[in-house]
Amino acid sequence: MHYIAAMPSARHLPLVVAFLLSGLLLAQDDSSSVRHPTLNAWDLANGSAEVPGMGDDVPGLNLVKEGNGRLQFGDSIAYASSDLVDTAWQKLRSSNDTVLPGTGVHWLRFRFLPDSLLKGKTLLLGLGGNEKLEVFLNGSLLFNSYAGPGNGKATDSVPSPYLVPFTFRCDGRTEVIAIRLTSVDGTVARTFAQGCSLHTADMAFRNQRNMTQYGVFIGINLIILLLALVIWSFERRERQWLFLALLSFVTAVDTFCDLAGNAGLKGSAGFGTSLFDAVQLILVPWPMYLLIMTLGTLQGRVGERRKRWYTISFITASTVCLIFALGIFYYRLHFSKAGGGVNFTLNDPEIPWSLR
After folding, report:
1. Residue 76 CB: number of other CB atoms within 10 A?
2. How many Cα neighbours within 13 Å face the side chain of 135?
3. Residue among 203, 174, 188 at smallest CA distance from 68
4. Domain 38-201, CATH
5. What are the start and end residues of each CATH 2.60.120.260 domain in the chain?
6. Can you tell me the distance from the alpha carbon of 60 to that of 163, in angstroms, rounded to the nearest whole number?
7. How far is C-alpha 83 from the chain's CA centre?
8. How far lies 192's CA from each of 54, 170, 196, 310, 352, in Å?
9. Helix, strand, coil % (nearest 5) of the chain?
10. Residues 285-343: tens digit of each pLDDT
């Protein structure tokens, strides 16, 4: 009973509750204020972003996801200033049923609070598109581009990527990247924003390292495939070597499809990306089935009845994956044609509402 006496008196309980409630209220998000994300080197090195012509899994960060993106139709030099209050602008992460109408000048603004460790370090701003654009950093002109014929329109070709070097001032104040797009409509402006990204200066090295890892994994599986086939050719009764060879082959194909389709590191786009994604989906049940058959045959503990059930389950799962793959493949090709040649993948965070 002595521990009860040591507890705080009941009359202090309302004060404790009031203190906890006040802390919770202070922790709530104030909708009237603008929260700016902290940008650090670790996120830049370990995140991933899509860069047209380079891949969908390039080390970096997507601006729309990380930078409180805003969109506005109209034109004013004040839109480039870091002191401009843009809370009335449309949020780029909001629903797509409010794409700004009109064709002309659109402005994109992204706010950041860089970590002090980034001071003096060169970063790369990735811009993928065939539009006329001007880029401002904290009100100062950073880059401008003139894309030639067909400006402001989505094309069938892969957008030309720009990698613009720059440095943040990192003085504890919010910094703004503002992009002025000329002769575009709201749909093109939003689609362009999805391709904007931030990277460290060594992003090419990191991208090549990722490709090397894919290559090593594919090479190991091909070596296992060859060795298993050689052994099986001498011992035809040992079917586990055949299953092992098939497992290595399927794993290598799946990894290559992930490299070329999902990661996009082979530069494929449109039809090629859709095809690789479809093949990868069809192969989903194969590795597990072949692994079970390999281990079961090796130990001799898989009876004929169990093998039959495994095979039936495998065929059923393969059929379902095949139907889904063909459906998604057809939808993506049809959607690409309806979108005027703009190719969207399953990894796109948002799809323009006007194309749905």
Report:
1. 12
2. 21
3. 174
4. 2.60.120.260
5. 38-201
6. 12
7. 30
8. 16, 27, 7, 47, 11
9. 50, 20, 35
10. 888 888 888 887 776 666 777 778 878 888 888 888 888 888 877 776 666 544 433 33
Three-state secondary structure call for residue 151: coil
Angle in degrees, 0-180, between the axes of helices 271-282 and 240-257, rounded to the nearest 10: 150
pTM over 0.70: no
Q: Tokens for 96, please give them.
A: 């797509």
275 Cα distance to chain centroid = 19
> What's the pLDDT tens digit per position in 157-168?
445 678 889 999
Instruction: Decide: 56 and 262 in contact? Cβ < 8 Å.
Output: yes
Rounded to 5 degrees, φ, ψ at 348 are: -65, 125
Rounded to 5 degrees, what are φ and ψ at 71?
-130, 135
Among the listed residues 37, 33, 32, the one whose alpha carbon sits nearest the alpha carbon of residue 64: 37
- Report the alpha-carbon distance of residue 154 to residue 167 in Å, rounded: 30
CB 37 within 8 A of CB 68: yes
Count the residues in the chain: 356
How many Å apart are CA 216 and CA 219, to the nearest integer? 5
**Token representation of residue 181:** 């797009």
